[in-house]
């Protein structure tokens, strides 16, 4: 499986069994970065305020697709969603479940090199465990994501600590400001949601 494998699936086989998350966690717990799938409450919080007019949307590390489902519930069609997922197991299941979406089995740090829509995205939804990643990789993910966003576009993420998981030096270099927009106490573990925006171009 190469980093740029494009999945297109069959909706009839697109159910994700409850064991999927556990299998992927057992394969690579640091890459999955959570002890349980994100809750529907967290999915509602991270997509709060979005509507059909907010596409296209890029998802990084969509996992079992709970955020994807929330985006659809907000009115964003799956044809306006591109999901970048490093796990081939998650990626193939997502492609089957959302056949009109673009699902790419890839490292999110390569986002700058992927032509996802042909136009800038409006929102990036990040489900990646940034705290467990080397700072250089976090920088590539953030820099590539903002290069893929329209001016004024937003990058949304969640974390299990109350601080933004992106190092301050990276935020400063890229000219990114952060805003904590939600707390989801009944997620396992409890989670905070942040929105990041770029106010100036990095020198």
From TrEMBL:
The keyword Transferase applies. One of its GO terms (biological process) is methylation. Pfam families: Methyltransf_25. GO terms for molecular function: methyltransferase activity. Residues 57-153 form the Methyltransferase domain. The keyword Acetylation does not apply. InterPro entries: Methyltransf_25, SAM-dependent_MTases_sf. Keywords: Methyltransferase, Transferase. This is Phospholipid methyltransferase. It comes from Hoeflea prorocentri.
């Amino acid at each position: 499986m190469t980093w740029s494998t494009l999945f297109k699936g069959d909706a009839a086989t697109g159910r994700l069994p409850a064991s999927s998350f556990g299998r992927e966690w057992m394969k690579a717990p640091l890459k999955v970065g959570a002890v349980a799938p994100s809750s529907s409450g967290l999915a509602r919080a991270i997509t709060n305020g979005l509507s059909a007019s907010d596409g296209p949307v890029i998802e990084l590390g969509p996992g079992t697709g709970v955020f994807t489902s929330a985006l659809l519930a907000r009115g964003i069609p799956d044809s306006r969603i591109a999901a970048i997922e490093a796990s081939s197991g998650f990626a193939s299941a997502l492609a089957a479940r959302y056949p009109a979406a673009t699902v790419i089995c890839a490292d999110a740090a390569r986002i700058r090199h992927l032509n996802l829509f042909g136009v800038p995205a409006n929102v990036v939804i990040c489900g990646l465990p940034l705290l467990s990643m080397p700072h250089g990789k976090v920088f590539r993910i953030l820099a590539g994501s903002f290069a893929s966003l329209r001016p004024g576009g937003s990058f949304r993420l969640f974390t299990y600590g109350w601080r933004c998981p992106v190092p301050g030096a990276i935020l400063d270099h890229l000219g990114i400001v952060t805003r904590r927009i939600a707390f989801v106490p009944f997620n396992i573990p409890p989670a905070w949601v942040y929105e990041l925006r770029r106010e100036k171009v990095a020198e």
